[in-house]
TrEMBL record:
It comes from Sphingoaurantiacus capsulatus. Homodimer. Keywords: ATP-binding, Hydrolase, Iron, Iron-sulfur, Metal-binding, Nucleotide-binding. The keyword Ribonucleoprotein does not apply. InterPro entries: Mrp/NBP35_ATP-bd, NUBPL-like, P-loop_NTPase, YlxH/NBP35. One of its GO terms (molecular function) is ATP binding. The lineage of its organism: Bacteria, Pseudomonadati, Pseudomonadota, Alphaproteobacteria, Sphingomonadales. This is Iron-sulfur cluster carrier protein.
Length: 334
């Protein structure tokens, strides 16, 4: 058994303030992130060798893998100063419309006059660029990533951290470290709220992210299907594990509205999420219908919540509930 606390101590001594995301496998294999910003390549390689050697000296360590990151150039922003609140949007499984809800919540809250950022941390399929119609890549200025601006929001996607042509296999600590950089070292300016679109699911990566970012609250998105609901329950218990308050459940694709005749059909069953929320004691934030125009507007980079219409109304109502639960109005900057 490797003594993780001892290992962290050894790493810290070998490279003060430069190691993070330490993992220890059951077989004694060890991984961590080593930040080598501001260092020449040769010096970085030497430091890596030294830190790996130090890690190998710890009792029980069988193998060592350091992941080098160089993006941490700028001094981190003072936490809690420029970003007043963080909201995580999560789902137990993929494809339930989590990103669509995150983007439209962000747009609706911005429309209420708050300064809002949207961070796309969905490493499995960053969709914020499509949802907001963002083109190109985020630029670096003074060693800080510059969020893009669209629909009254500042936005940054994990897609901007990698080469889109190269598939990246993210490991938990790497993904969490990339995300921390996007929160702390990007030039968000003053924000009342940063909405984070988490990767779907409740595995290690999501848990590590939730633990690292310590959001003020989380919104869980689910479809009314039973299977998705079981996964939503897992998401709720994941946040409970890391002491993050679940602000409530959003039911997406709750009722199918026929684009031709306007008739509503409950193809996944009626009120599944609402009943489940009541049963497990989590607030129900609202339901969004399955509507072809939501998909069309989203795919075209026009968040449906930007227009005042029948399809934007549920997003706006949910946004109002989230604003209340986060108490965003208190201490609101003028
Ligand atoms: N209420 C809705 N009505 C119609 N289409 C919707 C609705 N919500 C989302 N969609 C569509 O469903 C698809 C999946 O949505 P989205 O990308 O938001 O899901 P997700 O849960 O974030 O997926 P993943 O996390 O797996 O990337 C998109 O094409 C989106 O436009």
């Amino acid at each position: 058994m490797v003594d993780k606390a001892r290992l962290i101590e050894v790493l810290e001594r070998a490279a003060p303030g430069r190691t993070s995301g330490v993992t220890v496998g059951a077989d004694g294999s060890v991984g961590f992130v080593l930040a080598v910003d501001g260092m020449e390549r040769g010096a970085a390689t030497t430091l890596q060798a030294e830190v790996e050697r130090a890690a190998r000296s710890v009792l029980g360590v069988t193998g060592v893998r350091a992941i080098l990151t160089a993006e941490r150039g700028a001094a981190p922003a003072e936490p809690g100063k420029s970003i007043r609140h963080i909201l995580a949007v999560a789902s137990g499984k993929g494809g339930v419309g989590k990103s669509t809800v995150a983007a439209n919540l962000a747009v609706s809250i911005a429309a209420q006059g708050y300064r809002v950022g949207l961070l796309d941390a969905d490493i499995y399929g960053p969709s914020v660029p499509t949802l907001l119609g963002l083109e190109g890549r985020a630029m670096l200025e003074n060693n800080r990533l510059q969020p893009m601006e669209a629909h009254g929001l500042k936005a940054l996607s994990i897609g901007n951290m990698t080469d889109p042509d190269k598939a990246v296999v993210w490991r938990g600590p790497m993904a969490a470290s990339a995300m921390t950089q996007m929160i702390d070292n990007a030039d968000w300016g003053e924000l009342d709220l940063l909405v984070i679109d988490l990767p779907p699911g409740t595995g290690d990566i999501q848990l590590t992210m939730a633990q690292k970012i310590k959001p003020d609250g989380a919104v869980i998105v689910s479809t009314p299907q039973d299977l998705a609901l079981i996964d939503a329950r897992k998401a709720i218990s994941m946040f409970a594990q890391v002491d993050v308050q679940v602000l409530g459940l959003v039911e997406n694709m709750s009722v199918f509205v026929c684009p031709h005749c306007g008739e509503a059909s409950h193809i996944f069953g009626a009120h599944g999420a609402e009943e489940e929320a009541a049963r497990i004691g989590v607030p129900f934030l609202g339901a969004i219908p399955l509507h072809a125009s939501i998909r069309e507007a989203s795919d075209a980079g026009r968040p449906p919540a930007t227009a005042i219409s029948e399809i934007s109304a549920p997003y706006r109502e949910i946004a109002t509930r989230v604003v209340q639960r986060l108490n965003l109005a208190a201490g609101r900057a003028s």
